[in-house]
């Protein structure tokens, strides 16, 4: 699965640690999400969508 | 807030440098270990246990350093719990080997049970506090280790039953299991970019 996390985060001038804190996960988890090493659960995907104020399908896309 | 687009993957040169550094550290550790334990440890099972103890305590110390220098509020308490779990695991491997020099086997065994209970509690807390990716890594480590150990144990048990190889003690098997678990955790962690 592809995602736009890195771009969305950069647009808001957030560090990985900043985003991690808002999501309640570790910085390593944010890094793994951005590099495509880990696909989030549905609850975490909804949380990410809420944090960025965008629908899930605008952030995550299929390969 | 500071934007940081961290490099997603280390370069080949960085990986090679890390490999050389780890190889050098491994060599130095091996030489030091062989020198220090020459004549002290007579059974390979105890040597393996001490290696496992050194590895777990080493990881615990490194984790403690990371927790101290790069503190993180989320997931709450996980860093400290990981340090506690690793240090206790190392101690648990050392006690049966060296404990009888200071106390009776019964007292040492009691201490092992006590520490094991504390370590199990810390492990449980770590699971409950971990975020979903850390839990996934734990699950994948367990599954991978179980598969590898079950396969190896069957091959060994069949060969032992047929009289092709000698019997390995339970202590030796425990050391092997821990070694397999270590490798499994490295593989599972590396797949998620944890290092």
Structure description:
The complex is a heterodimer of chains A (63) and B (195). The longest helix of chain A is centred in the C-terminal third of the chain and has 11 residues, at 42-52. A two-stranded antiparallel sheet of chain A has the order 1-2. The mean pLDDT of chain A is 93. Chain A has helices spanning 5-11, 16-23, 27-34, 42-52, 56-59, and strands at 2-3, 60-61. With 63 residues, chain A is mainly α. Chain A has five helices and two strands, in the order βαααααβ. Chain B is mainly α and 195 residues long. Helix content of chain B is 76%, strand content 0%. Chain B is built from six helices and no strands. Chain B has helices at residues 12-36, 44-69, 78-98, 105-129, 132-161, 170-191. In chain B, helix 2 (44-69) runs antiparallel to helix 3 and helix 5 runs antiparallel to helix 6. Chains A and B meet through helix 1, helix 2 and helix 3 of A and helix 5 of B.
Amino- and carboxy-terminal Cα gap of chain A: 5 Å
Strand content of chain B: under 5%
- Uncertain regions of chain A: pLDDT < 50 for 5+ in a row? none
Largest sheet of chain A: 2 strands, antiparallel
Please tell me the overall pLDDT of chain B: 87
Record the SSE blueprint:
The complex is a heterodimer of chains A (63) and B (195).
Chain A: E1 2-3, H1 5-11, H2 16-23, H3 27-34, H4 42-52, H5 56-59, E2 60-61
Antiparallel strand pairs in A: 1-2
Helix pairs in contact in A: 2-3
Chain B: H1 12-36, H2 44-69, H3 78-98, H4 105-129, H5 132-161, H6 170-191
Helix pairs in contact in B: 2-3, 2-6, 3-4, 5-6
Features:
heterodimer, A: mainly alpha, two-stranded antiparallel sheet, globular, B: 195 residues, mainly alpha, 6 helices, 0% strand
């Amino acid at each position: 699965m592809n995602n736009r996390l890195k771009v969305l985060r950069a647009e808001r001038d957030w560090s990985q640690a900043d985003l991690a804190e808002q999501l309640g996960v570790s910085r390593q988890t944010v890094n793994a999400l951005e590099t495509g090493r880990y696909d989030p659960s549905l609850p975490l995907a909804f949380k990410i969508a809420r944090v960025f104020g965008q629908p899930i399908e605008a952030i995550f896309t299929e390969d | 807030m500071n934007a940081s687009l961290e490099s997603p993957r280390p370069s080949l040169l960085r990986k090679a440098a890390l490999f050389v550094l780890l190889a050098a550290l491994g060599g130095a550790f091996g030489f030091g270990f062989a020198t220090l334990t020459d004549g002290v440890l007579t059974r390979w099972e105890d040597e393996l246990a001490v290696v496992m103890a050194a590895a777990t305590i080493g990881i615990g110390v490194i984790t403690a350093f990371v927790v101290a220098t790069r503190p993180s509020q989320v997931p709450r308490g996980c860093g400290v719990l990981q340090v506690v779990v690793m240090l206790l695991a190392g101690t648990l491997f050392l006690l049966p080997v060296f404990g009888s020099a200071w106390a009776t086997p019964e007292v040492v065994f009691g201490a092992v049970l006590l520490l094991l209970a504390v370590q199990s509690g810390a492990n449980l807390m770590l699971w409950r506090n971990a975020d979903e990716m850390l839990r996934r890594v734990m699950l994948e480590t367990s599954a991978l280790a179980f598969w590898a150990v079950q396969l190896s144990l069957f091959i060994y048990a069949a060969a032992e039953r047929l009289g092709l190889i000698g019997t390995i003690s339970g202590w030796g098997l425990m050391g092997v299991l821990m070694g397999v678990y270590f490798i499994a955790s490295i593989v599972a962690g590396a797949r998620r970019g944890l290092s």
